[in-house]
Write a structure and sequence with these properties.
Helix content of chain A: 10-25%
Oligomer: heterodimer
Radius of gyration of chain B: 18 Å
Largest sheet of chain A: 7 strands, mixed
Number of helices of chain B: 5
Distance between the termini of chain A: 27 Å
Order of helices and strands of chain A: EHEHEEHHHEHEEEEHEEEHEEEHEEHH
Number of strands of chain B: 0
Largest interface: A-B, 81 and 61 residues
Number of domains of chain A: 2
Number of helices of chain A: 11
CATH superfamily of the largest domain in chain A: FAD/NAD(P)-binding domain
CATH class of the largest domain in chain A: Alpha Beta
Strand content of chain A: 15-25%
């Protein structure tokens, strides 16, 4: 079954997945002199292959996973028949989600790490404190902001925790939609700040400033100037000479040695041959859905229910956030496509928990274009979609509309989970991830509250017409995913320890969103990368123990 | 058929297609999920509003009617010469140019 191709040399560390977390871990490990093999299921695309147009990027699956090759299934309860759906997709390629994002990179607040203590028990939810604090992660936030290249204004978010350093670059220029958002917040007396972004407003670290285009969100970056894992951390890791990155390498399972540690990752290469890669330690960085799936696919005598799953918690407590928005029309033009609709302003005014509100926690509010605010895909909620009325709507409102969006902090629940589908397989013959998800009442209440506040911002900014779109379920539209291998101090209630190492397996780590006990109400990638860097340092220090 | 439907006033959001339907920030959709009429509408939009390199949107007529000053060619986007800064808030493009030169 394993081919006659020569068995590759044993690595110090094998990282599976080369997106935000895998690339951050690879950089930190390789720069510490550790020899790393990276296995990435998707291609390694060069910037020259990213065209700049909407049709190719948004409408032709240029970057999203192909739903026919890589399906997922969803259902709202265990008694329901799952249906195939492109749920919570993330580009599967070197760079992962950072290839097509515009990267809103706020820090989590200190409260995010101890919400169970702050808010108490929530019935029907499995709320848990993190085993680490904001203060422990803070140095790594700074490391990422400076190494990755983030533009923002330190101190502008008054709900942010203490920081050891400012941002390396000042905020990006102010878009007209950000200007409206700030005007609205100012007149309501709410704090607003320039959204910290994965982009350079100035030349920095040998890189030129980020090109501010319209073809940005969900478009690959043909200029190579955005801050992405593909543009920054992957090249950093390669430069060390310690990183052997192998794209088009689909890991099928992790095997164990006689001591119960992971011995190897068995992967299918581009020729369809099976290769076995041994390493001293293994780091899962596949995204919370695929990390859980790979653990569950790796069954053995020791772990009949999937690797590191003695607790039966692998895949459980999954959270996805949800984007929804209030949409406003203005008389004056806003050009919400400028900067791709995501050179934004934010507010954490309703982010932290306030028991007076009658629900737990809150979320990040920020402005954006409506949907993908480009000619083909822009559309207002409930607007006519064809005929003369649709054309008139395009003419009248394309340049005059914007959204104020929320990032919903959905509650973790024991029965909300990722497991393996019984019937549907991917193009490589492996069972796909099946997502079982019922929103908690708290999600719906919090969502209504946040969307109402979003509407008030638009009204205060002078919008002539505001439409509120409430989230009535979690659709996976954020591409954010967390919680499927929670970290914690107690092996009975968590999969990983505080170092994101499996309680059950001495040399197995996860560094994507899967360790997050709660999803929080903010975009997760900055924290994912900061945590990956923290874990990578631990692995580098323990190197002797793994070999 | 479309004219007849239009006269009959059978406009509904369910005939949609582009993201924007449902959650206001829907970021993904798959054409494979669309039925005939929504797919037809979607492809009509693509023909009218996609980059002229595909043969529709001739002389950028689609972009002009909605006021989208798209790039004069895809090469402008590819090389980074196409910039949306002039459509940012008043004075921002100048400030940026002062700080960074012509990027």
């Amino acid at each position: 079954m394993v081919t006659s191709k020569p068995r590759p040399a044993r690595a110090d560390v094998c990282i599976i997945g080369a997106g935000a977390s895998g690339a951050a871990a690879a950089k930190a490990l390789c720069e510490a002199g550790v020899n790393v093999v990276g296995l990435e299921r998707g291609p390694w695309r060069m910037r020259e292959t990213f065209g700049g147009d909407e049709l190719a990027n948004i409408n032709r699956y240029n970057l999203w996973p192909d739903p026919l090759l890589n399906p997922r299934t969803t259902r709202s309860s265990a008694s329901e028949k799952p249906r195939v759906q492109l749920f919570c997709p993330v580009p599967q390629m070197v760079g992962g989600g950072t290839v097509h994002w515009q990267g809103w990179l706020p820090r989590f607040t200190p409260e995010d790490f101890r919400l169970r203590t702050v808010a108490g028990e929530v019935k029907g939810a499995s709320l848990a404190d993190w085993p680490i604090s904001y203060d422990e992660l803070e140095p790594y936030y700074s490391k990422i902001e400076w190494a990755f290249g983030v533009s923002g204004q330190a101190g502008a978010n008054k709900f942010e925790g203490p920081r050891s350093q400012g941002y390396p670059c000042p905020p990006l220029p102010m878009s007209r939609y950000a200007e409206k958002f700030r005007k609205g917040c100012d007149s309501l007396g709410w704090n607003a700040f320039p959204t910290p972004q994965a982009a350079l407003s100035r030349a920095f670290n040998g890189r030129r400033p980020t090109v501010i285009s319209a073809f940005a969100q969900q478009h690959g970056d043909p200029t190579g100037t955005r801050s992405s894992a593909l543009n920054v951390f992957i090249p950093d890791a390669i430069k060390t000479g310690h990183f052997d990155l192998r794209p088009n390498s689909i890991v099928r399972e992790l095997t164990l040695d006689a001591t119960g540690a992971v011995r190897s990752a068995v992967y299918e290469d581009a020729d369809g041959d099976l290769i076995e890669q041994e390493a001293g330690a293994f780091v899962l960085a596949c995204g919370a859905v695929e990390t859980a799936r790979l653990l569950l696919l790796s069954k053995s005598g020791r772990f009949p229910n999937g690797l590191a799953n003695n607790s039966d918690l692998v895949g459980r407590n999954v959270t996805f956030h949800e984007y929804s928005a209030a949409v406003g029309l203005f008389d004056d033009p806003i050009y919400a496509w400028a900067g791709g609709g995501y050179v934004s302003a934010s507010s954490f005014q309703f982010y932290n928990h306030d028991p007076k509100r009658g629900f737990v926690s809150g979320g990040h509010l920020a402005c954006a274009g409506v949907g993908i605010p480009l000619p083909i895909n822009w559309r207002l909620p409930d607007a006519p979609v064809w005929g003369a009325a649709a054309k008139q709507n395009d003419r009248d409102n394309f340049n005059h509309s914007m959204a104020v969006a929320m990032v919903l902090h959905d509650m973790p629940r024991h029965d909300n989970r990722v497991d393996l589908d019984n019937e549907v397989k991917d193009a490589w013959g492996m069972p796909v991830a099946r997502i079982t998800l019922t929103p908690h009442d708290n999600d719906l209440k919090q969502g209504r509250f946040l969307i109402d506040r979003a509407g008030e911002i638009l009204e205060a900014a002078g919008s002539k017409r505001v439409q509120k779109v409430y989230a009535d379920r979690v659709t996976g539209n954020c591409s954010h995913q967390h919680g499927t291998a929670r970290m914690g101090d107690d092996p009975a209630t968590s999969v990983l320890n505080r170092d994101c190492r499996a309680h059950d397996v001495a040399n197995l780590y996860a560094v994507d969103g899967s360790p997050f006990p709660t999803g929080t109400g903010a975009n997760p990638t900055l924290t994912i990368m900061a945590n990956a860097w923290r874990v990578a340092e631990t692995i580098a220090k323990r190197r002797g123990a793994h070999s | 058929m479309l004219r007849a439907l239009e006269r009959a006033g059978e406009q509904s959001a369910s005939a949609g297609g582009p993201p924007g339907e449902g959650p206001a920030l829907q970021q993904t959709f798959t054409e494979t999920e669309l039925e005939f009429l929504p797919l037809l509408v979607m492809h009509a939009r693509q023909g009218f509003y996609a980059d002229p390199i595909y043969g529709g949107n001739r002389d950028r007529a689609g972009w002009q009617v909605i006021g989208f000053p798209g790039p004069s060619s895809l090469m402008e986007v590819f090389t980074g010469r196409f910039s949306a800064l002039p459509w940012f808030a008043e004075g921002e493009a100048d400030k940026y140019r002062e700080a960074n030169g012509d990027v």
